[in-house]
Amino acid sequence: MRLVTFGTALAFVVASAVRAVGEPAQCAIVIGAGGKSHSYDARLAPGQHARFDGVPASDFVRSTSGPCVFVIYNNAGFGGRSVRLGTGLDDRIRAGLDGVERRDKGGGETWRIRSVRMERMDTACRLRLGGGGVRMTYFAGLHPEVPAMDRIGELVGEDCTADIWNGTDFGAHDPDNRFKALHASGPRTEAYDPGFRVRSFRIMAGGARCPVFAKDQGRCLPQALLDRRLHTDSSERDRDRDRDGLDDEMENRLATVFRPIYVNHSSEDGTRTGIYRTVVGDMVTEPATLFQVHPEGKDEIVIRFMKLWRHDVYDKPLCGGHDGDSQHHRLYLRTAPTGNAGRDRFWYVSRVRGGIQQDMDWEAGDRSLRGPRFEGESGANGTATHLVIYFSKGKHHEYGDGGWSGQTDRDCINIKAHTNGRGHQHQPPLPRRAASLRSPSGRGDRFDFTNVGTVAHPFFDDLGPYGFPGQRVWSGKLFYSKKAQPVCRIFGCCDSIPCQQAE
What we know:
The chain is mainly β.
């Protein structure tokens, strides 16, 4: 029989400076050692926290309950080492970063508890995290140190996302900065293995409000609202110079709203700067980014982004460097349903395709938890619309996050994927073309955008002004070397390749 005592440590409740909204709720934690248990609880309103100092030195946490996060400290006075615990813990763990993995045998990064803090949380977003039969629920906020766990149950809530790190302090001490991005999954029956032990994470509750049809598991999908209809009719041919049935100006508007964010490795050495100047004066860092907006069935369109570098730099056999390098990804957008006032003006992301070995592939309804990261709030209804892409050092392989950083490259098994994301971060200056193209020249080069148009009615062809002399968009020839495919393949067809064979 285990002796249970109620905490007699010095305790006090502190209210946040922000006015609490919501009813008070009971939060409790039970700690102990040597067959004894000590219970500490408080009734807290949102924004309030309770602190318990001078608690009996305890090795174990036996349970947590209530809508709170619980911070346990190695020292009295809320100092020394600490970890944050979620609620709903119903099985004993040890205190410390290794408290779950080494809950039975001790050792490693485990220690004794001497002070406790509990904080009432907003429960709008909930991440279920665990390992070895232990489970806890965490709420929106920053969690810089948690017991290492390797199973995620679910992420649920309205417009919720999360990032999880292998290292503490959001990867600050991890040279690889290994992390993964999660999106709301809805209820799940199987736990997700992120491929590493989670030691820190952040859960973000978005503020976007959007139509139900543009949501996925409660999350507002990236979306845009145009000034006018995207599709054109026979009386509007002057708005559709590439003859694809879409308004050229609205195509460029969508490409601007959904232009990606590029993130390099901290020691990236295969990327040139200042490769050309745009018509608005911006200097461009590689990759040069081309795009095409094209119809995709009745209710969808696709934005194809092609990225170009002069060199792939990586001195390893089998996956060595080469002249010419390219990567591409695609965003599929769906419009509002028939009868809705926003039809053909309101567009939202329904699918993503791209990345090495399809690392960024995702579509609405996917409950796999891991999903593409979008940042910035430039979209309709305050949604983030810029897909974040992590390039590996030298080879420019595309990843959706840092989940493979420091691990075997998904395309070259004899090298590592260096994607710590701590290098130069930038966006392509879409949709502006090179400043040196002052007037129409030959086949294309007619407009102020890097929109390529179509093979039959191109907006430009010559890549020389963009930093790649002698190369063309539509020729169908290899981009500098056999290691890089023809630029036009991503755009559907080329001069020398039948449309049905290209992609």
